[in-house]
Each structure stands twice: as structure tokens, then as C-alpha cells.
Amino acid sequence: MLYYYRRSQIFYKKFKKLTEKDHGLKDKFINKIGQVLDNPEIGDFKRYDLKGVQGVHVNPFVILYRISGDTIEFVNIDHHDKIYRKIKKLK
């Protein structure tokens, strides 16, 4: 199946900030995003406040996305600790 994609404003800003000085990391992110677009089911389903979102790791970072019909929306990208710390505070 062919998927379209879009990026949230948060994803776009964080991606740009994380990769502006690290081209190797940018290549890793782009490679993982390509893998998600080829097979969106590779991500783990998240729970609690991230319910309905899937995530893939590019250690030590996490790319969060959701699938809606034929569109994949990349929601957030950040360090693993920052993504999950927000959830722990809400419990």
C-alpha cells in the first residue's frame, strides 16, 4: 500500500534542531522514516497518554507517528528520556 505522510510542526522543529549539526544522525533518521513509510507496522504501539501512537527507535531517540487511513503523520521526535519523562509526570 502506498502511504502519504505529513509532519507535525513539533516534529519538523525538533528534527531540524537535532540534525542541523549532525548529518550522520540526519541520515539515520531519514533511513528509519523510509522504513516506516515502507512498512508502518514496524513501530511499537504506545500506551497511556500516547495511546494511538506508534514509535520506532533510533537510539537514543524515538520517532512517534500515527496512521490514519493512507496517511502517516510523524508526531514527535526526541530523546527517549524526554519523550517518556512527560508521561511519567502525568501518572
Summarize the structure.
Strands 1-5-4-3-2 form a 5-stranded mixed β-sheet. By secondary structure, the chain is of the alpha+beta class.
Number of strands: 5
Number of helices: 3
Q: Judging by the overall fold, what is the CATH architecture?
A: 2-Layer Sandwich
User: Helicity, in percent?
Assistant: 40-55%
Question: Rg, please?
Answer: 13 Å
CATH homologous superfamily title:
RelE-like
Describe this structure in words.
- The protein is of the alpha+beta class.
- It has one domain: YaeB-like fold (2-Layer Sandwich).
- It is 42% helix and 31% strand.
- It is built from 3 helices and 5 strands; from the N terminus they run E-H-H-E-E-E-E-H.
- A 5-stranded mixed β-sheet has the order 1-5-4-3-2.
- The longest helix is centred in the middle third of the chain and has 16 residues.
- It is globular, with a radius of gyration of 13 Å.
- The model has no long low-confidence stretch (mean pLDDT 91).
Give me the secondary-structure topology.
Layout: E1 4-7, H1 9-19, H2 23-38, E2 44-45, E3 54-58, E4 61-68, E5 71-79, H3 80-90
Parallel strand pairs: 1-5
Antiparallel strand pairs: 2-3, 3-4, 4-5
Features:
globular, 5-stranded mixed sheet, 91 residues, 5 strands, 31% strand, alpha+beta, YaeB-like fold
